[in-house]
Prior knowledge:
This protein is mainly α.
Amino acid sequence: xxxxxxxxxxxxxxxxxxxxxxxxxxxxxxxxxxxxxxxxxxxxxxxxxxxxxxxxxxxxxxxxxxxxxxxxxxxxxxxxxxxxxxx
Length: 87
């Protein structure tokens, strides 16, 4: 355990940020799963609706610094490609 006041504060701040990041990442994974489920059922309308929601969630996570912009772009690209493959 840390003895210095600033080190103790760092521990608390890190815990807070880690909890926030975990929550945001969980929301992103859930939205991606919804898109994948709709694609698996070949439901184009549901997949497109879920895709819009997923892109929004991923973009918010990126703007908050949870994901790198290239990671965001890769996730969005893969989801879009999957939805467009339904035909």
